[in-house]
C-alpha cells in the first residue's frame, strides 16, 4: 500500500504536465467559421398590398372587381350610387358621361373615386384624339396627323393628352392604337399610326412614353385590327394571316408599346383563323402569346363585350357565358358599356356577377384564374392611385 501510494505521488506531476504538452501554453482554439446570414428578400409593397386585399375578398366581391361597367348620365351622385351598388372594379366614361371639357368631368370622377377612397376604381376613357375623343378640349394631334410627322411629335401630343385625361380624373386611357394597316378601306385606317411595323411601332412607343406618369396606357386592339376591313362593333373580323407573318408585322407595335411600359392591353374580338379557331378575347393561345412570348405582365382588358351580341352570331348570344369564357381564356377586366335599361343591354350587372360566381362554384372557371384576374386589376388600381 505504501509503495503504491509513493508511486502515485511520483506519477502525479507527470500526469499533470503531460496533459499540456510538457508545460507549453495550450494553443488557442480555432475560430469556428460563421455562416453568413442570408440577406432578407425585399418585400414588394404592391404585391403585399394585393395579397392582403385579396385575402379579405369573398367570391362575389372578386366577381365584381373584374368588371368595368358603364351607365349613362352626368349626375355625380347617381354615378357614385351605381358604383357602390355594383361594386365594379372600374367605370368607363363614354360621351354620355362627359358634359364637355376635362374640367367639367372632375366632379363626376371625384364622386366615383370616393366610393372606395382607400383604393379608387379604375376610370377608363377612350381618348385617342381625332375621331375618337370624349373631351372637347382635346385639340392635340391624333394618329392620322402624327403618322406623317416625326415620331417625337407623338410623344409631345400624348403627354398633353395624358395631362388632359389626368385633369378630367380618369386614370386609364384606352388611347394608344397599336393596330396597323395601309388599307384605306379598313375600319381602323384613320386611327392607326401607319402600315409599316417600324414606323407604327416608333409612334406607339412614343405615345406610351408621353402618357407615362400621367395616366395608365392601354394598347389596343390585340392582336391587331388592321388585317380586316370589317368593323368589330357589329361583326367578327376574320383574317387567315399566319402566326409567323403576324410576329414580324402586326405584333411589332404591341411589342414596342409593352417595352415602353404600357400598363394595359385591350384584346379585340378578332379571329385569326390560322392561329386559333377562337376570337382573341376567348383564346387561351393568344393570351399565352401575350403573357409568355411577349412578356406582358400587366392588365388585360377586353373590348366592349356587348359588341359580341351585335355580331348576330349564335355562339356569342349569351353575355354571361361570354364573360366566363373571356375570364377563362386569360382576360382580367371585362368591359361592358351598359345602357340605363338592362333590357336594352341584354344583361345586368347582377347577372354578370352571379354568373361568374356560379362558374367558379360549378368548376367551369377556376378559382385560381379568377384570383389571377383580380390580382391584375388590383395592381392597376394601386398603380393608378399612386401615380
What does this structure look like?
The structure is a single chain. The protein is an alpha/beta fold and 387 residues long. It has a single domain, classed as Alpha-Beta Barrel (TIM Barrel), CATH 3.20.20. The protein is built from 16 helices and ten strands. An eight-stranded parallel beta sheet has the order 9-7-5-4-3-2-1-10. Helix 7 packs parallel to helix 8 (197-211) and helix 8 (197-211) packs parallel to helix 10 (251-259). It starts with a helix and ends with a helix. Mean pLDDT is 91; it is low at 1-25.
Topology:
Elements: H1 2-18, H2 45-55, H3 59-65, E1 67-69, H4 76-86, E2 90-93, H5 102-113, E3 122-125, H6 143-146, H7 151-168, E4 172-177, H8 197-211, E5 216-222, E6 238-239, H9 243-248, H10 251-259, E7 264-267, E8 271-272, H11 284-293, E9 299-302, H12 306-309, H13 319-329, E10 334-335, H14 342-345, H15 349-361, H16 367-386
Parallel strand pairs: 1-2, 1-10, 2-3, 3-4, 4-5, 5-7, 6-8, 7-9
Helix pairs in contact: 2-16, 3-15, 4-5, 5-7, 7-8, 8-10, 13-15
Please summarize what this structure is.
By secondary structure, the protein is of the alpha/beta class. It has helices spanning 2-18, 45-55, 59-65, 76-86, 102-113, 143-146, 151-168, 197-211, 243-248, 251-259, 284-293, 306-309, 319-329, 342-345, 349-361, 367-386, and strands at residues 67-69, 90-93, 122-125, 172-177, 216-222, 238-239, 264-267, 271-272, 299-302, 334-335.
Give the full name of the CATH homologous superfamily.
Glycoside hydrolase, family 3, N-terminal domain
Count helical runs.
Answer: 16
Q: Helix content range of the residues, please?
A: 40-55%
Q: Tell me the name of the CATH class.
A: Alpha Beta
Low-confidence stretches: 1-25
Largest sheet: 8 strands, parallel
How many β-strand stretches?
10
Overall pLDDT confidence: 91
What would you say the CATH architecture is? Alpha-Beta Barrel
Strand fraction band?
Answer: 5-15%
Radius of gyration: 31 Å
CATH fold name = TIM Barrel
Number of domains: 1
- How many angstroms does the end-to-end distance come to? 97 Å
What global shape is seen?
globular
Which class of secondary structure composition applies to the elements?
A: alpha/beta
Topology order in helix (H) and strand (E) letters: HHHEHEHEHHEHEEHHEEHEHHEHHH
Order of adjacent strands in the largest pleated sheet: 9-7-5-4-3-2-1-10
Amino acid at each position: 500500500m505504501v509503495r503504491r501510494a509513493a508511486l502515485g505521488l511520483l506519477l502525479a506531476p507527470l500526469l499533470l504536465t503531460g496533459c499540456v504538452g510538457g508545460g507549453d501554453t495550450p494553443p488557442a482554439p480555432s475560430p469556428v467559421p460563421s455562416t453568413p446570414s442570408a440577406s432578407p428578400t425585399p418585400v414588394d409593397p404592391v404585391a403585399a398590398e394585393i395579397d392582403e386585399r385579396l385575402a379579405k375578398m369573398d367570391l362575389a366581391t372578386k366577381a365584381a372587381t373584374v368588371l368595368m361597367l358603364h351607365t349613362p348620365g352626368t349626375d355625380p351622385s347617381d354615378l357614385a350610387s351605381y358604383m357602390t351598388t355594383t361594386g365594379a372594379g372600374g367605370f368607363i366614361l363614354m360621351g354620355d358621361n362627359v358634359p364637355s371639357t376635362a374640367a367639367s368631368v372632375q366632379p363626376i370622377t371625384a364622386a366615383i373615386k370616393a366610393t372606395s377612397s382607400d383604393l379608387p376604381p379604375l376610370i377608363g376613357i377612350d381618348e385617342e384624339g381625332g375621331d375618337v375623343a370624349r373631351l372637347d378640349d382635346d385639340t392635340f394631334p391624333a394618329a392620322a396627323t402624327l403618322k406623317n410627322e416625326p415620331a417625337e411629335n407623338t410623344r409631345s401630343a400624348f403627354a398633353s393628352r395624358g395631362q388632359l385625361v389626368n385633369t378630367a380624373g380618369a386614370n386609364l386611357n384606352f388611347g394608344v392604337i397599336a393596330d396597323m394597316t395601309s388599307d384605306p378601306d379598313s375600319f381602323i385606317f384613320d386611327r392607326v399610326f401607319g402600315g409599316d411595323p417600324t414606323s407604327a411601332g416608333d409612334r406607339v412607343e412614343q405615345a406610351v412614353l408621353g402618357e407615362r406618369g400621367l395616366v395608365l396606357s392601354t394598347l389596343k386592339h390585340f392582336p391587331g385590327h388592321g388585317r380586316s376591313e370589317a368593323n368589330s362593333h357589329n361583326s367578327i373580323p376574320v383574317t387567315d394571316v399566319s402566326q409567323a407573318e403576324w410576329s414580324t408585322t402586326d405584333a411589332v407595335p404591341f411589342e414596342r408599346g409593352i417595352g415602353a411600359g404600357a400598363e394595359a392591353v385591350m384584346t379585340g374580338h378578332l379571329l385569326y383563323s390560322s392561329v386559333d379557331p377562337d376570337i382573341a378575347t376567348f383564346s387561351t393561345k393568344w393570351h399565352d402569346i401575350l403573357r409568355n412570348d411577349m412578356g406582358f405582365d400587366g392588365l388585360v382588358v377586353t373590348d366592349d363585350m356587348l359588341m359580341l351580341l351585335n355580331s348576330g352570331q349564335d355562339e356569342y348570344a349569351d353575355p354571361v357565358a361570354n364573360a366566363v369564357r373571356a375570364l377563362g381564356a386569360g382576360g382580367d377586366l371585362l368591359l361592358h358599356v351598359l345602357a340605363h335599361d338592362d333590357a336594352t343591354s341584354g344583361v345586368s350587372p347582377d347577372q354578370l356577377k352571379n354568373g361568374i360566381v356560379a362558374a367558379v362554384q360549378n368548376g367551369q372557371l377556376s378559382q385560381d384564374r379568377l384570383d389571377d384576374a383580380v390580382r391584375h386589376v388590383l395592381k392597376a388600381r394601386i398603380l393608378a392611385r399612386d401615380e
